[in-house]
Fold this sequence. Notes:
The chain is α+β, with helices and mostly antiparallel strands. Helix content is 24%, strand content 25%. A seven-stranded mixed sheet has the order 3-5-1-14-11-12-13, with helices on both faces.
Amino acid sequence: xxxxxxxxxxxxxxxxxxxxxxxxxxxxxxxxxxxxxxxxxxxxxxxxxxxxxxxxxxxxxxxxxxxxxxxxxxxxxxxxxxxxxxxxxxxxxxxxxxxxxxxxxxxxxxxxxxxxxxxxxxxxxxxxxxxxxxxxxxxxxxxxxxxxxxxxxxxxxxxxxxxxxxxxxxxxxxxxxxxxxxxxxxxxxxxxxxxxxxxxxxxxxxxxxxxxxxxxxxxxxxxxxxxxxxxxxxxxxxxxxxxxxxxxxxxxxxxxxxxxxxxxxxxxxxxxxxxxxxxxxxxxxxxxxxxxxxxxxxxxxxxxxxxxxxxxxxxxxxxxxxxxxxxxxxxxxxxxxxxxxxxxxxxxxxxxxxxxxxxxxxxxxxxxxxxxxxxxxxxxxxxxxxxxxxxxxxxxxxxxxxxxxxxxxxxxxxxxxxxxxxxxxxxxxxxxxxxxxxxxxxxxxxxxxxxxxxxxxxxxxxxxxxxxxxxxxxxxxxxxxxxxxxxxxxxxxxxxxxxxxxxxxxxxxxxxxxxxxxxxxxxxxxxxxxxxxxxxxxxxxxxxxxxxxxxxxxxxxxxxxxxxxxxxxxxxxxxxxxxxxxxxxxxxxxxxxxxxxxxxxxxxxxxxxxxxxxxxxxxxxxxxxxxxxxxxxxxxxxxxxxxxxxxxxxxxxxxxxxxxxxxxxxxxxxxxxxxxxxxxxxxxxxxxxxxxxx
Length: 694
């Protein structure tokens, strides 16, 4: 059992410490860092999806007044070999997707750079494009593992026999489309090469992750690179690692010593250069007895990856854990296409995978003539079906029961299409959520004391989630002092090592390191330290995953209104109830959970990156064509959590909350549309044509 920290500041809804700086425009994001006479970079991108560059003519661009540098494979710095081939740019003539970086122009103003980039003439040798994903492709293959290091396939045996003998069966295919992260702050890098030292002011979710990836790639010693990221305007996973644009900015800066080079991707460029959620095809089969108890779960996934670099999303993994079924099979198969590289998007794997499973569970409830909440309760489990280990804490049933009570579920007529208000058909739906709880090793914090104040230093990053505030609260409790006595320093690779803000692991990992440093500080210096004192400590290794299965759980409830004349879907009410351990700051936690739910609403109703398969090109590559939820879509969205402390994962008693809010949200809405209309839609988004056909 972890020696759990006693909470005093934790649990208090403190106002965000960075709030004033942000609302007054004083918080410096990457592009905001002032530089003396900076230069501006605009990329040159491939206009074919597959082939090679035969010739690249920069003559007209070079002659434009104000151009400082044109960069191509002919004059770019030589990079070291890297397993991450996405970042290995301007080293060869091959083109693997439309929009791939093949050059750049650096000029005195961003307008000149953009104009000059348009003057670069490129001759290609083009090959046939293959950008079509389907489950019947003959070239689907099994990756060695999927994202997160999970096994690609699992099979307990006897699945087909158990399915065939089950009294009630569901056998359906569910699809989710390609989706793109669209944080408010675009991906931005400012690079300065000076005195054989590279500084990057970068919009990234992990300064040390960027440092570790980029220093060897650029053939730099670790001390030659510094990455600075005090504030990030959202990332949702897309900024979880450096992409090719960071490499491009760094290479340009190294060709212009002493002059900072600024690069801010356009919204359109973000649709090709910084990842996306892969489209998924989920074949889900469920077998249950007449009472709804699952006998078998089969979840087989087909998704896409890029020819340039493999990324395999762990879409079927949550189906291994969430319900008790004696027979389980999951698999992942990939199609290699001439498309940009997929990457993390909030709750990668869990989000699309649980959507498929939870819509299938709704279909099973109807087939069993059973309430959807009760079906999930009957299939609860005290141990992880995959590993046999007990959960550190699991209260999915509590989430379902509390949510049903608060949502007024008991008043629901179980029959579909029973409630109509004028032209609007009204229905309600439910879905379960799960997300793994992680505390990553390799985090170190430093605590310095002087003049009655504590300076707490760790290379963590706040991507808008409230890290500046939550870490200060954790430090205050660990040091047994008011939070106002804490000066927090984060967002700099010169600070002690910290893992990436991803996988909902940030506070659980960094907070554990801060607590370890605070305890070491107290052990070394006592409660009344000398006027100047300093201690550094690393988060100790833990064997918790060998003894327990750490997961968070939740239940999502949604009410929808579907217009019988237009097919328009509205969501007037959503409620999420979550089992996520101790909450450090209720104010920021509520924001994180409801933000995830709104993103799930957006996934359900709007988001769809439309691929033109002829050219490997996303045609709606801006916020005019790629629709996301707006204020008019979001009415009454609320999130609550059960009062609990996880005593095993970390000394704060917390589990991550950044991603579980989106998991299950779209499924709850999809299930509610069936209850409202009697029309089962098995693909997203839930656009009007699905309902008008009926």
